[in-house]
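The step that takes the researchers longest sounds almost clerical: writing a folded protein down as plain text. The outcome of that step, for a single protein, is printed below.
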Amino acid sequence: MRCWLAGLVVTTATSCTYDFDAYTPRGDAAAVVNDAVVGCKEAGARTFGGHCYFPTTAPLAFPDAKKACEAASAHLVVITSSGEQAAIESMASGADRWIGFSRPPGSASDAKLFRWVTGEPANYFKWDAGEPRGMGECARMKTGGPWGDSSCAAQIVAICERESI
């Protein structure tokens, strides 16, 4: 059987199972290969798809959260798929969390105006019903996972994302 692991083909005599962080052929627990990202050692960190995700250590306003992520050689999380959304939903899940999605200051409260901090195309969305509501120019992941807009001055924890290094 051929299985894919971090871009490599791994051959095994049995079938494969997949986890966010590891490959384990069924029936052979000794053959675990970690897909850990070098430098992903922050408290509460997890990996998915070759990226490291971690929460900021304290609640911050959006601009300060952006700077805190950048100081850690990361950026505010950019969510491009339902798999990535699911992988980070449980991080700091007891409260709202900043994500790297915002619209220009003073612009209309229109979901189409929100942009990712990295400039990546916005092709995946998980806005809560009735969102964005015009509450602010910055987006947050609400408790439970859906997104909402908020004042960028609100003090909440952020989720940072670091590419493979």
